[in-house]
Specification:
InterPro entries: Rrp9-like, WD40/YVTN_repeat-like_dom_sf, WD40_PAC1, WD40_repeat_dom_sf, WD40_rpt
Subcellular location: Nucleus
Number of strands: 21
Keywords: Nucleus, Repeat, WD repeat
Protein name: Ribosomal RNA processing 9, U3 small nucleolar RNA binding protein
GO molecular function: U3 snoRNA binding
Number of helices: 0
Order of helices and strands: EEEEEEEEEEEEEEEEEEEEE
Structural class: mainly beta
């Protein structure tokens, strides 16, 4: 008889991303590989190779099948998933990249961990903007819209929201604090409300969690928040958002 051949990852999966039309699912692992899947059938389509260390972040450009990948090798790579092809590599970070995000524009944003920088990569212009601010490692980053992003780090400060188009005028962004829902090591998820003009920070409430909270993701509708962490047991919590019909779900 024939033995079944393993298809897929053989090391820890660190990140995942799905294209905005739901056609492709990408996953990255500790073995430097990116796997592309059909999310409907779970069929493995192909693998993307090129990073020299663990793949730590993935993001599809909205409305396209362009994929950005970040790695502990300090680089960002651009891929055309439709063509199963490598496009280019972006360099600049001085330490392993810990976060990556993009929206519709031909650019992405990254967090550089212990190099304590945030970078905005303008791919078409072949340029980048560099931000400094956190005192410690910058561990996560998320775009709110095409003009503002939020970051979080291990220095204990509140998450920071700032307009990245004004990077040259305000290179130190830590004075503008505001954030949606940072997770942490203190066994809780904190929900915040941004003030008008993305200035100011108003805490809404916190949700207790067991163990470390390692990842957070809102649903596209904004009605649900999913949290992942180191709690070994499987559990779900549904908590009404303050003065709204929104819910919090954790696993």
């Amino acid at each position: 008889g024939t033995e079944a051949r393993h298809v897929g990852h053989t090391a820890h999966i660190l990140c995942m991303a799905i294209s905005s039309d739901g056609k492709y699912l990408a996953s990255g692992d500790m073995n430097k590989l990116i796997m592309i899947w059909d999310p409907v059938t779970c069929k493995h389509l192909y693998k993307l190779k090129g990073h020299r260390d663990a793949v730590s972040g993935l993001a599809f450009r909205r409305g396209t099948h362009t994929l950005y990948s970040a790695s502990h090798d300090r680089s960002i790579k651009v891929w055309s998933v439709d063509e199963n092809a490598y496009v280019e590599t972006l360099f600049g970070h001085q330490d392993m990249i810990t976060g990556l995000d993009c929206l519709s524009r031909e650019r992405c944003v990254t967090a550089g961990g212990r190099d304590r920088t945030i970078r905005v990569w303008k791919v078409a212009e072949e340029s980048q903007l560099v931000f400094h601010g956190h005192e410690g490692s910058i561990d996560c980053i998320q775009l709110i819209n095409e003009e503002h992003m939020v970051t979080g780090g291990d220095d204990g400060s509140p998450p920071s929201v700032f307009p990245y188009e004004t990077a040259l005028q305000t290179p130190d962004y830590h004075q503008h604090h505001c954030g949606p829902s940072p997770g942490s090591h203190n066994s809780a998820v904190q929900l915040w409300k941004c003030g008008q003009g993305f200035r100011g920070l108003e805490p809404l409430f916190s949700v207790p969690m067991s163990g470390f909270v390692n990842s957070l993701k809102f649903s596209n509708s904004g009605k649900f928040l999913v949290a992942g962490g180191s709690e070994e047991k499987l559990s779900f919590h549904i908590v009404p958002f303050a003065k709204s019909n929104h819910s919090f779900v954790s696993q």
